[in-house]
Amino acid sequence: MSLVHSLKTLFAFLVSCAVTPLAAAMTVIHTEKSLYRNIVVYEEGGERCMSFTGRTQSARQTCLSLTDPNHFVFVYTKMMMGALYLQPNPKKILMIGLGGGVLPSALATVFPTANIDVVELDPAVVKVARQYFGFNPSSRVRVIEEDGRVFVKRAGKAGRQYDLIMLDAFDHEYIPEHLLTQEFLFEVKALLPADGVLAANTFPAAGCTATNRQPMKRYSGLSTTFVSS
């Protein structure tokens, strides 16, 4: 069995190790302290961005081009959409982590009949995504304000399945630890049909360190366990 076939029946593992620094000169248009984080929305160089860290830090959760909202500012979003080469016609899509809503908005446009569930822990992020980044939930783009692991566990017990799952949940430092365990990945895998695809953003806020390479080993182990013939 070829590697491509194995990936198609299991997941697309997408990772980038490049970080674009956040410049100091900017116009802050919104700040908010939620229960989970400090949210900063700013504009700079023709882009509107969301950060969970502050004005002088390097991590940016979302950036939107003010002149071309359909343009993907981040390379990782283009890589995540590359999962569509393996699952070109998803009917049911699950996203863990909202950010500014760039990916679910793009998927809703590309697949106008698909049902998309977006799970976001922080209600403040949902509000900011709607107000500043043009994210519009609808009858087929449903937002669930809940911890991603809790949602996945409940969805598994309910027997739900998704053709495409995208993991894109980050706090101000990196992926929350409870969303990095192999147990969680097994629970996610259970939501996929035989031809389902999982795309995971493991974009490291601190560069390619040994710690940030650990998730790759966990995904690799999952792939080895669930190779299908």
Tell me about this structure.
The chain contains seven helices and ten strands. It is 29% helix and 22% strand. The chain has two domains: 3-18 and 74-225, 3-Layer(aba) Sandwich (Rossmann fold), CATH 3.40.50; 27-65, no CATH class. The chain is an alpha/beta fold. The protein starts with a helix and ends with a helix. The protein has helices at residues 3-9, 75-81, 102-110, 123-132, 148-157, 182-189, 210-225, and strands at 12-14, 27-33, 38-44, 47-51, 62-65, 92-96, 115-120, 141-145, 164-167, 197-201. Residues 1-23, 205-213 and 221-229 have low confidence and may be disordered. The strands form two sheets. The protein has a six-stranded parallel beta sheet with strand order 1-10-9-6-7-8. Strands 2-3-4-5 form a four-stranded antiparallel beta sheet, covered by helices on one side. The longest helix is centred in the last third of the chain and has 16 residues, at 210-225.
Strand order of the largest sheet: 1-10-9-6-7-8
- The geometry reads as globular
* Total tally of structural domains: 2
Low-pLDDT stretches are: 1-23, 205-213, 221-229
Approximately how much beta-strand content do the residues carry? 15-25%
- What is the H-and-E element order? HEEEEEHEHEHEHEHEH
Provide the residue-averaged pLDDT.
79
In total, the number of strands is: 10
Oligomer description: single chain
What is the percent of helical residues? 25-40%
